[in-house]
Amino acid sequence: MEGKYEGKTIKLYIMGDKYKNIKSIELSNWSGKAYIGNRKHVGILQEFDDLATPGVYFLISENEDSYQKKIYIGEADEINKRILDHQKKKDWWEEFVVFISKNSNLTKAHVRYLEKKLHDIAIQNKTTIDLDNSNTPPSSKLPISDCDDMDEFSENIIFVLKNLGMIDFTRINEDLKEKKIEIENPVVFELSVSGGKGTKSRIAKLSIEDSNYILLEGSYIRKEISNGFASHNYVKIRKQLELENYFIQSDDDAFLILNQNVPFTSPSAAGAIARNSSVNGRKEWKLKNGMTLDDYENSH
Question: By its UniProt entry, which InterPro entries does this protein fall under (predicted)?
């Protein structure tokens, strides 16, 4: 087999009748462990000795009127008791995922660091995550070696959540944060955006980063929502981005301008936000030479 594949093995164990099919998750060469279940499993969690330890957790539900998932991120000294408390006080969530250490090496300081890091990443993912946390959690001061360990631990958490289809996290790397992508990465796709009758079309720009689609800072966004698009699920995300000041007014009243890079899991979603109408992103995003995004991805 040609090429080198740097993958990971996910071990998924589905428990028997006594535990009503709670799932445990492990990765190869990782000290972490996850448990996945829903509200009916919360009482059973109290029987697990390894869950009476520090950990981080996610409460999850589907948003019926958008493509986002509603989540809450937290940490606790005794993770099973905290989930039980949330069962009594929060009625919106359907599933939970908890992450602990198999060798009990996570401390309160570690899980507070993880909670803050995962919270900050979730904040970046406006298009896939509706974060329920009302406050920004505090972090904790750790030795540099522990920070490195917890950064790797958080990456494995994200890997598990993404590859099991539970939460679609996108990590925005430092090049994107510094808005250098057009210099660092020459593969930029363009989409013509009409402002409506009597206006000159403008351009939105997109790039691919780690299998995610980044609508680039400086892209033009149609201000008016087309009639056929007003009830679309993407409109909620579009309005959320506007409410949180992701757009500034352009020199043309028909357009807004995106003022920071925004990750999407679908090129059609990115195009829909720019055009305020439905878009076949794989066909309509194109390189300057006319190659479609679909053709580009099929050739790479």
Answer: DUF4357
Burial of 181 (0-12, 13-18, 19+ CB in 10 A): buried
Structure-token pair, residue 286: 């194109």
Retrieve residue 120's tokens: 């900050």
Residues in CB range of 144: below 8 A, 6 or more apart: none
Q: Give all strands (DSSP E) within the chain, no chain letters.
A: 10-14, 23-27, 32-38, 55-62, 69-76, 95-101, 129-131, 188-193, 202-209, 212-215, 220-222, 247-249, 255-258, 262-264
**Among candidate residues 206, 210, 190, 212, the one with its CA nearest the CA of residue 263:** 212
What's the pLDDT at 263? 86
C-alpha pair distances (Å), 240 with each of 16, 121, 123, 127, 236: 42, 17, 12, 9, 6
Contact criterion met (CB below 8 Å) for 2 and 21? no
Indicate the pTM of the whole model.
0.71
> What does the block give as tokens for 227?
């009639």
Other beta carbons within 10 Å of 200: 9
Pairing, β 129-131 against β 69-76: parallel
78, 131 Cβ separation under 8 angstroms: no
Where b means 16+ CB within 10 Å and e means fewer, 20-53 reads eebbbbbbeebbbbbbbbebebbeebeebebbbb
Return d(Cα 282, Cα 208) in angstroms, integer.
Answer: 12
What tens digit of pLDDT does each residue of 116-157 get?
A: 999 999 988 877 888 999 899 999 999 999 999 999 999 999
Q: Considering only CA atoms, give the Rg of the chain.
A: 21
72: which 2 tokens? 């809450």
